[in-house]
């Protein structure tokens, strides 16, 4: 029996979607973020030393990291749907987007969110705040902001010509890409990117995605 250790408002929601698409039998163990730190609870460390979600308990032991979990599930449980593409061009896109999601898109997205939260919290004493804000603006303008904008333009361009990320049907690449894109749409950062918005709507309209939402509970990005 597979068990998904599911944290609210986290990357584990996309693993729920994949599990539903594959139609495999699984259980869910629920965890809630700490109300003060917004981090995963310490109880997750009993499942995996990193104490982060998602973690999937399998007959071969626990496995962490979304990409690794996607590859495990696809290898062991995919048949016609959500299988690794056989077409060489689609396969190359599959590999790229599977790793682009966490390797290129998520780091600047998370950095932007963290730095914006730091700006909102302000500094003490109050006269330090202008200095802190200037520092944050410098970091965002010099690196994270342009990096994120470039990635979004590239994704938008690709989705304007393609329905899915790797071929004519959704794959594990789409499972990886949905979390950053739906979080961008939910936050309003993708308001000028119609193809990205349309893609997120397509995923959210799938019956398996709706079932995953119903089973997963609180989720801020759908």
UniProtKB/TrEMBL annotation:
It comes from the Bacteria. Residues 87-222 form the GST C-terminal domain. SUPFAM superfamilies: GST C-terminal domain-like, Thioredoxin-like. Residues 1-81 form the GST N-terminal domain. InterPro entries: Glutathione-S-Trfase_C-like (IPR010987), Glutathione-S-Trfase_C_sf (IPR036282), Glutathione_S-Trfase (IPR040079), Glutathione_S-Trfase_N (IPR004045), GST_C (IPR004046), Thioredoxin-like_sf (IPR036249). Belongs to the GST superfamily. This is Glutathione S-transferase.
């Amino acid at each position: 029996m597979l068990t998904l250790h599911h944290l609210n408002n986290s990357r584990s929601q996309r693993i729920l979607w994949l599990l539903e698409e594959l139609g495999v039998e699984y259980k869910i163990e629920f965890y809630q973020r700490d109300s003060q730190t917004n981090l995963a609870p310490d109880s997750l460390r009993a499942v995996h030393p990193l104490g982060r979600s998602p973690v999937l308990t399998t007959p071969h032991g626990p496995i962490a990291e979304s990409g690794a979990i996607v590859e495990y599930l696809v290898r062991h449980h995919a048949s016609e749907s959500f299988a690794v593409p056989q077409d060489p061009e689609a396969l190359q896109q599959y590999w790229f987007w599977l790793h682009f999601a966490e390797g290129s898109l998520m780091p600047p997205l998370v950095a932007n969110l963290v730095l914006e939260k730091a700006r909102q919290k302000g500094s003490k004493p109050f006269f330090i705040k202008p200095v802190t804000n200037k520092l944050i603006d410098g970091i965002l303008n010099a690196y994270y902001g342009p990096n994120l904008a470039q990635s979004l333009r590239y994704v938008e361009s690709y989705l304007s010509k393609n329905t899915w990320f790797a071929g004519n049907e959704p794959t594990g690449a789409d499972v990886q890409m949905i979390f950053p894109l739906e979080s961008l749409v939910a936050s309003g950062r993708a308001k000028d990117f119609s193809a990205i918005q349309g893609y997120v709507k397509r995923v959210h309209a799938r019956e398996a995605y709706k079932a995953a939402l119903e089973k997963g509970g609180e989720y801020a990005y759908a």
